[in-house]
Amino acid sequence: MATEHDSAILPQPGGPLAVGKRSTPEPGSNEVLIEVKAVALNPCDYYQRDHGMPPVPIYPAVLGSDIAGVVVKLGSNVTTVPGPGSRVTAFASSFYQNGSPDHGAFQKFTLAQSEAVTPLPDDLSFEEGSVFPMAVATALTAWTTIGIPLDTRYTPADKQAVLIWGASSSVGTLAVQSARALGFTVYATASPSHHDLVKKLGADAVFDYKDSDVVSQIISTVKKDGVQLHTAHCVVSGALQPTLDILKETKGDATAKVVHSPVLPEGHPTLDNTQIIFNFPPMDETVRSKHFYEVFHGWLNSGLKSGEIVPSPNIQIEGGGLDGVHAALDKLKGGVSGTKIVVPI
């Protein structure tokens, strides 16, 4: 096994990332050492690069969380992950590891907690596999945050609907796929150029969020369909007020529940008999480990095996390997729509 490896290292807040050598770690008892073949980028990556993000990383830091690669070595207590040579996708963030750079994604070898490692089917490329971890963790945590178990299976007779505002993003597309799997009638918003994709992933109706009358369009469709809409996921900023305007007319006497993935701004709008909850995984390590096991070993593993869950959104490949990660983060910061930037390593 290699004793050192290349890493895209952040020497201090603000960057830039620079490729350098790091010692290759041994996995802890519940960890998996993975050779990284592809990384996917998320907005929090460039935010952490530019500004820092609690918990404060250990500098020099290694950022990133979304990887696909090959298992190199299992920790002594790991029994739920296939052995060396197996293809996997993994959530390899240092966020829950006190910023430890051994756990960041942007390097050739990294550590991941075993509960957040999922076998990757042979018919999916490493680039496709890398898009899942953060998006799946965020989309699935949204349901449990508002009290919806991941084994829920509504039927049409239940007439349960959900609104997903911002459905063409990485998290949004997985929110749509998971909502479909839960049995919801799915209403979603996206730019018109992404409507076909969002419908293909499972939305029953998709609306242009820029339409001046989008709120009334959605209310009218819900009432025409005769379903109960009192659940929503705000995937993007600026979605809360129109979401509440819709729920005010569709929730009836039920307590509405809105899960909000961006940080809730101070003085955010509210609605009577409506819970508005920030979407965040459990901070207690034992509870979080159990939750991630259910998400990655249960839901994602089952969905990938059956083919019910597919890579989404569209992938934008950026070259350069680890040397190209810094520029790829700048492209993401500059704005992309309906795509996930992936860098092969």
SSE arrangement:
Layout: E1 4-9, E2 18-23, E3 31-40, H1 43-51, E4 66-74, E5 87-91, E6 109-113, E7 117-119, H2 126-129, H3 133-145, E8 160-165, H4 170-182, E9 185-190, H5 195-201, E10 205-208, H6 214-225, E11 228-234, H7 240-250, E12 256-260, E13 274-278, H8 285-306, E14 314-317, H9 325-334, E15 339-344
Parallel strand pairs: 8-9, 8-11, 9-10, 11-12, 12-13, 14-15
Antiparallel strand pairs: 1-2, 3-4, 3-6, 3-15, 4-5, 5-7
Describe the overall structure.
It is a single chain. The protein is α/β, with parallel strands linked by helices. The chain folds into two domains: 4-131 and 282-344, Alpha-Beta Complex (Quinone Oxidoreductase, Chain A, domain 1); 137-278, 3-Layer(aba) Sandwich (Rossmann fold). It has helices at 43-51, 126-129, 133-145, 170-182, 195-201, 214-225, 240-250, 285-306, 325-334; strands at residues 4-9, 18-23, 31-40, 66-74, 87-91, 109-113, 117-119, 160-165, 185-190, 205-208, 228-234, 256-260, 274-278, 314-317, 339-344. Helix 3 packs across helix 8. The longest helix is centred in the last third of the chain and has 22 residues, at 285-306. Keywords: Oxidoreductase. Residues 14-343 form the Enoyl reductase (ER) domain. InterPro entries: ADH-like_C, ADH-like_N, ER, GroES-like_sf, NAD(P)-bd_dom_sf, Trans-enoyl_RdTase-like.
Give the H and E element order.
EEEHEEEEHHEHEHEHEHEEHEHE
Number of strands: 15
Report the uncertain regions.
none
Q: Give the tally of structural domains.
A: 2
The name of the CATH superfamily of the largest domain reads Medium-chain alcohol dehydrogenases, catalytic domain
Note the main sheet. 7 strands, mixed
- Summarize model confidence as the mean pLDDT: 96
Task: Output the CATH class name of the largest domain.
Answer: Alpha Beta
In one word, what is the shape? globular
Distance between the termini: 18 Å
Measured as a percent range, the helix fraction is 25-40%
Rg computed from alpha carbons, rounded to a whole number of angstroms: 20 Å
SS summary, helix count: 9
Structural class by secondary-structure content: alpha/beta
The CATH topology of the largest domain is: Quinone Oxidoreductase, Chain A, domain 1
Percent strand equals: 25-35%
Using the 3D structure, state the CATH architecture of the largest domain: Alpha-Beta Complex
Protein name: Zinc-binding dehydrogenase domain-containing protein
Family: Belongs to the zinc-containing alcohol dehydrogenase family.
Keywords: Oxidoreductase
Domain Enoyl reductase (ER): 14-343
